[in-house]
């Protein structure tokens, strides 16, 4: 038995044979086409089919029941070695590395626990104020709006001066938005 056979368990997915490994890799097994007389006419080499996606997770493109689907590799690996994912649960990467799909690194968690894990392990933070990708104002401008409103400036004037809506100017001046700015 070679290395690949020791590491792998087979999952048959039409149209080809796919092997899912405990080390977190998914491979299409080498296969070939023959003529009626038994001569080989085309060889399809073995290749890794779990590819990195734009968000960092590896995924596998498979054709199931005539439709192409992209399946997250970590979910496929979990289902192969541990069974179905319980309802209301997601599969978490224990070390926080999205590409590390070793079965020993995967664990089921609720979505809430998964988010808490991301804050604790990966140190993700919610983006507020200037650090948010969609911000229009700076922290300094927020303080200016609040001071101007206290001095009697109208919401219309503030909204025109800073390129925001009157509603936004009102929420900012009443400290109902941008609450982290004191």
Please give a structural write-up:
- The chain is of the alpha+beta class and 182 residues long.
- The protein has two domains: 3-122, Alpha-Beta Complex (Homing Intron 3 (I-Ppo) Encoded Endonuclease, Chain A), CATH 3.90.75.20; 130-173, no CATH class.
- The chain contains six helices and eleven strands.
- It has helices at residues 3-7, 73-82, 111-122, 139-150, 155-162, 166-173; strands at residues 8-13, 16-21, 26-28, 31-34, 40-44, 47-48, 50-52, 58-64, 67-72, 89-93, 106-110.
- A four-stranded antiparallel beta sheet has the order 1-2-3-6.
- A hairpin with a 4-residue loop joins strand 2 and strand 3.
- Helix 5 (155-162) crosses helix 6 (166-173).
- The termini are far apart.
- The model is unreliable at 1-15 (pLDDT under 50).
Cα(first) to Cα(last) distance is 67 Å
What is the third-level CATH name, the topology of the largest domain?
Homing Intron 3 (I-Ppo) Encoded Endonuclease, Chain A
Largest sheet: 4 strands, antiparallel
The overall average pLDDT, rounded, is 80
From the alpha carbons, calculate the radius of gyration and give it in angstroms.
27 Å
Number of strands: 11
Question: Which term fits the overall shape?
Answer: elongated
Oligomeric state:
single chain
CATH class of the largest domain: Alpha Beta
How much of the sequence is in beta strands?
A: 25-35%
What is the SS-derived class? alpha+beta
